[in-house]
Design a protein that fits this description.
single chain; 257 residues; alpha/beta; Rossmann fold; 8-stranded mixed sheet; 9 helices; 8 strands; 39% helix; 25% strand; globular; binds benzoic acid
Length: 257
């Protein structure tokens, strides 16, 4: 699920505390409806759990991720599956795949046109692209809380630090069509996402939102995280649990020609 210019990913932490990311991917696998013998690219494979499900379904699966840490962990867990370090914006496949599948990755890449061109090029004629990622307004309450917390502590927030690409459905499907796809499904839906344990929000921000804290010392960061927790508790903590305000985009595109 991961694309970052710097490899800040902690693959062990990802597997132990954030395994919900690939668990949610199960629904996307249903949409993919893989058939035995198909060749499928898992774009942003993370530590390989969804690729393993495809492998078990007799799919000829290849997993790529921009994080060398994630790929190393995926290879260690599932040595029979080919995993490679590759950036989603620099894919170099040609008419190879029956499907390209991507769960919780594309919001990390700020150059969607390049990504879509590479995916289209990698698909065989008739191939399908199935993806889910953060859409417009995703985790907006958390973002507002982080920016407010940083500024309240006397630090600047620069919009260039924003790590995610969260398009509207109109924007993204237009880009898909521009790349050549026929869009057969497009949804932008709320998916409130429970975060494990009392530290759930803090752990989520540490794992995924580190870009907001660039240049801030660790002790200050901890204080800011405590402030953010206090300010967001009335908004995102219900029935003894943190719930992140995810808004997802889910799309299917077909390469017809
Ligand atoms: C998401 O799946 O929407 C997401 C996950 C981590 C960071 C940002 C968004």
């Amino acid at each position: 699920m991961t694309q970052h210019s710097q490899d800040t990913w902690n693959a062990n932490l990802y597997d132990t505390q954030h395994s919900f990311v690939s668990k949610y991917g199960d629904h996307l696998l249903d949409l993919l409806a893989p058939k035995a013998g198909e060749k499928i690219l898992d774009l942003g494979c993370g530590t390989g759990d969804l690729a393993k499900k495809l492998y078990d379904a007799q799919v000829d699966v290849v997993g790529v991720d921009s994080s060398a840490n994630m790929v190393a962990q995926a290879k260690k867990k599932y040595p029979a599956i080919p995993f490679e370090v590759q950036d989603a914006a620099e894919l170099d496949f040609h008419n190879e795949f029956d499907a390209v599948f991507s769960n919780a990755t594309l919001h990390w890449v700020q150059t969607p046109k390049q990504v879509l061109t590479g995916i289209y090029q990698g698909l065989q004629q008739g191939g399908r692209f199935i993806a889910e990622f953060g859409g417009k307004g995703n985790v907006q309450t958390i973002i507002d809380g982080i920016i407010h917390g940083i500024q309240e502590a006397g630090f600047d927030y620069n919009a260039e630090q924003f790590p995610w690409y969260y398009p509207s459905i109109g924007e993204y499907t237009a880009l898909m069509e521009e790349a050549g796809f026929r869009v057969t499904l497009a949804q932008h839906y709320d998916r409130p996402t429970p975060l494990d344990e009392d530290n759930g929000l803090r752990d989520w921000i540490i794992m995924f939102g580190s870009a907001f804290f660039t240049g801030i010392a660790e002790d200050k960061k901890n204080d800011i995280l405590t402030t953010i927790e206090q300010q967001l508790r009335p908004l995102l903590y219900t029935d003894g649990q943190w719930v992140a305000d995810y808004k997802r985009i889910r799309v299917i595109g077909i390469k017809e020609k």
